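Re: the request from the purification team.
They wanted to know what the chain is likely to look like in 3D before they choose a buffer screen. I agreed to run a prediction and write the result into the notebook, where they can find it.
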Amino acid sequence: MKDIQNQRDYRNLPIDKVGIKNLRYPITVRDRRDGFQHTVAVINMYVDLPHDYKGTHMSRFVEMLHLLSPEVSLKNFAAILKDMKRHLHAASAHVEMTFPYFIEKKAPVSTSPGLMDYTCSIIGSSNPAGKIDLVSEVVVPISSVCPCSMEISDFGAHNQRGEVRLSTRFKKFIWMEDMIELVEESASCDVYSVL
């Protein structure tokens, strides 16, 4: 059977990103309190396609995810980017992994525990020179006092709900909890699942 992907392409058209999107995959991430947390990520994986190739081997993207098992870490995230380039004959590689991350928070008055979920992402790329770029991102629900309401009232100004997206470029491990706490400390009030 002919291997179409490996045949030469004479159209001379390079493509920046080819790959797979929205693949759901179980992962384990570091958790400051419990050590590890199991979750399910939605993963996008891409490589560049040189001008002289007709395609890439899509099934190899899924095979390479096993390199991340069982834990998503800085070390194995960089390794999968390098392996994607090598196995798929690409100059650059990109991986985007988005997952729910849960933190137990106690209600402010009753102290009843509840789980808050935060949308977290790790985005990595390796350029043609082999430089690895990693970004960690959290989306944190917050509550903030309405500045207009606060200005016109002596007491009882209303709050607004919002989301804050914090992205951090990093070279060494960073706790998701630290990023989430940084955002929550900047808000007027935390959001709780149990009141």
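For the purification team: Residues 7-186 form a domain with the Urate Oxidase fold (CATH 3.10.270.10).
Please add any questions underneath this entry.
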